[in-house]
Amino acid sequence: NLQESESENKLDGETASDSESKSEFGGSPPVPTSDDTPEVLNRALSNLSSRWKNWWVRGILTLAMITFFFIIIYLGPMVLMTIVMCVQIKCFHEIITIGYNVYHSYDLPWFRTLSWYFLLCVNYFFYGETVTDYFFTLVQREEPLRILSKYHRFISFTLYLTGFCMFVLSLVKKHYRLQFYMFGWTHVTLLIVVTQSHLIIHNLFEGMIWFIVPISCVICNDIMAYMFGFFFGRTPLIKLSPKKTWEGFIGGFFATVLFGLLLSYVMSGYRCFTCPVEFNNDTNSFTVDCEPSELFQLQEYNIPSVLQSVVGWKTVRMYPFQIHSIALSTFASLIGPFGGFFASGFKRAFKIKDFANTIPGHGGIMDRFDCQYLMATFVNVYIASFIRGPNPSKLIQQFLTLRPDQQLHIFNTLKAHLVDKGMLGSLEDA
C-alpha cells in the first residue's frame, strides 16, 4: 500500500519541490537547445572566437529584424495588428510547449487542445471589445456585427464556460494535480501574452507613434545595453542574468533617452504616425488622417537658466510629445529590462537557455518580446492617465444609437446644464 501511495503521489506531481532536481519535472529532461545558426554564417565566422561569433550573429539577425520592422510599418496599421496577433500566437505556443515538454511523460488528456481553445476564447473576447470600442459606426451599420456586439460578453462567457466544462470532464485519476498545474499554466500564459498584446493593439489605434516609439525604445535599449556591456561591461548587474552589467544598463539608459527624443521629433511631423486609426463611412475603409493635436504641434519652451550657459540657448522648439517620450524611454530603460529578468528566471527554473530556436542567436520570439509586454502595459496606462480624454465623436455615435425618447431626455438634460452654466445664452447671442 505504501508503494502504491508513493507511486500515485509521483504521478500526481506531489514529489515536485523547490530544488532543481530531475523529480521537479516529473522525470522528463529539460527542453534541449541546439545551435541553430545558419550554416552560411557558421562558415563565414568559423575563424572567430565564440564571443565575437555570437556578436556578429546577433548583429546580422538584429539588422534583418529591424528591416522587417520597417517594412511592416510601411504596410500600415492593419498589417501591424495582424503581425502583433501572429507574434502573440507564437509566444503562447513557445510557453505552452515548454509546459508540454516538461510534463510530457504524463500524457495529460486534452491539454494542448484545451490550451489552444482557451486562447481562441480570450482572443475572441478582447478583439471583439476592441472592434466595438474603436469602430462603433462600422459595427452599428452591419447587422451581423451589431448582433455579435450586443451579446458579445455573453457569447464570450459561454465559450469559456464550454472550455471549463471540457477541462472538468478531462480530469483523470492520478493526474489530478498535474492537470490543475497545467490549467493554471495556461491561464497565466494567457494573462501574460494575450492581455498584453491586446494592450499593444489599443496603443496602435491611438496612433502609430504610440506603437512605434515604445517598441523602438525597448529595441534600442536592448541593443545599446548589449553594446555598452560588450565593450565596457565589468560590473555584474543581477544574478538572474550574469551577462548583464551596470555599464550596459547605464549606457543603454542614456542612449535610449536620446534616441526617443530624436525619433519622436521625426515622427511627430507626420500625420500618418500621429493620427488615430478610424473607420471612414464614406470610403468604407480604415483611415489615418486628422488635424494634429497640440501634442504634435511645435511649441517654444524656456530652457532652465542653469543649462542656458551650457547649451547657449534660452529657448528651444520641440513637440510636447517629445517630453512624453522621455517618460517612455526612461521606463523602457529602467523598468523594461525587468521583463527580461523575469523571463531569465523562468528559463532558469526549467533549465532552458531560450524559449525556442526560432531566431538564430536570439532564441525564440518570446525571448525578443519579454520586455515589450511590460512596456505595452505602461504605455496603455500612461495614455489613459495623462493623454486620453473623453472622445466627443464616440459619445455622439453612441447617442445616435439610442431610442428617440432617450435622445430627447439627454438633450433636455444637456440644455438645462448649459443654461445653468450660462453657456447656452452666450452661444445664442453669438
TrEMBL record:
Highest taxon of the lineage: Eukaryota
Protein name, as recorded: Phosphatidate cytidylyltransferase
Recorded catalytic activity of this chain's protein: 1,2-di-(9Z,12Z-octadecadienoyl)-sn-glycero-3-phosphate + CTP + H(+) = 1,2-di-(9Z,12Z-octadecadienoyl)-sn-glycero-3-cytidine-5'-diphosphate + diphosphate; 1-octadecanoyl-2-(4Z,7Z,10Z,13Z,16Z,19Z-docosahexaenoyl)-sn-glycero-3-phosphate + CTP + H(+) = 1-octadecanoyl-2-(4Z,7Z,10Z,13Z,16Z,19Z-docosahexaenoyl)-sn-glycero-3-cytidine-5'-diphosphate + diphosphate; 1-octadecanoyl-2-(9Z-octadecenoyl)-sn-glycero-3-phosphate + CTP + H(+) = 1-octadecanoyl-2-(9Z-octadecenoyl)-sn-glycero-3-cytidine-5'-diphosphate + diphosphate; 1-octadecanoyl-2-(9Z,12Z-octadecadienoyl)-sn-glycero-3-phosphate + CTP + H(+) = 1-octadecanoyl-2-(9Z,12Z-octadecadienoyl)-sn-glycero-3-cytidine-5'-diphosphate + diphosphate
GO terms, molecular function: phosphatidate cytidylyltransferase activity
Pfam families in the cross-refs: CTP_transf_1
Gene name in the database record: Cds2
UniProt-annotated location(s): Membrane
Family the UniProt entry places it in: Belongs to the CDS family.
Example of a GO biological process term: CDP-diacylglycerol biosynthetic process
UniProt KW Lipid biosynthesis keyword: yes
Organismal lineage: Eukaryota, Metazoa, Chordata, Craniata, Vertebrata
Membrane topology according to the record: Multi-pass membrane protein
Spans annotated as Disordered: 1-38
Pathway: Lipid metabolism; Phospholipid metabolism; CDP-diacylglycerol biosynthesis; CDP-diacylglycerol from sn-glycerol 3-phosphate: step 3/3
UniProt biased composition (Basic and acidic residues): 7-23
Keywords linked to the UniProt accession: Lipid biosynthesis, Lipid metabolism, Membrane, Nucleotidyltransferase, Phospholipid biosynthesis, Phospholipid metabolism, Transferase, Transmembrane, Transmembrane helix
Cross-referenced InterPro entries: PC_trans (IPR000374), PC_Trfase_euk (IPR016720)
EC number: 2.7.7.41
